[in-house]
Write the structure tokens for this entry.
Amino acid sequence: MSDLTYDKKGTVARITINRAALGNTISGEAISLFLEYLDRAEADTGVRVVCLTAAGDRIFCSGADLGGAMQAAPDEKQAMFNRYARLLARISRFSKPTLARINGHCLAGGTGFMLACDIVVARDDARFGTPEVNVGLFPMMIGALIFRNVLRKQAMEMILLGEKISAAKALEMGMVTRVYPGETFDAEVDKILETLSSKSPIGLRLGKEAFTACEGLDLEPALGRLAEALQAVASTNDAAEGITAFIEKRPPVFTGE
């Protein structure tokens, strides 16, 4: 059985961590497949949004497989760490909207997957944390994403204490975007995926690319870059359709052109 699965339903591609019996830990195979599936979803014009989730209903991801990959030779471990870092960068810069469906506890390396996504929807009984310090490690690559989402002192407290926090606290900190109880969780996730799928694919792609390009720029260069990006978006057929539909008081039909 594969450590990661890919399924397309309508305009939504779901990438599922498939190691429930092992706490949905991250294996080398899972990382390689993840990169492959992102390429597949990006190349498929029928896919408008990618949903990352996990098998089972208890743990979304508990981090690296300490009993497997972490026991590998130093050069093999370094290669896996490099692929994991490349994967986080790939998710963060993905051209289509990404949503993490957190259907259980999300710890250690799983936090990286979650933070790299555009939208994070969590079940209210999920717990979050970076417990690496408890086994003599440190959440290195995750740190690059935590400090882009969470205030530094809040992040450092979670990292240094290695304690788990509630979904409500994760929402307050800005790690997740929405929290729902179990009985409505899947329905709410589906609503968000449907809404994302209804938007202009080219508009979202150009917008995400522009925002990524402006990270770290000073104000005036950022505004100049975004003004150019707005012109590119405004020149698309989808923008013309959207404005026409607005004037005609009807839903737009976006084709991604």
About this structure: The chain has two domains: 4-197, 201-247.
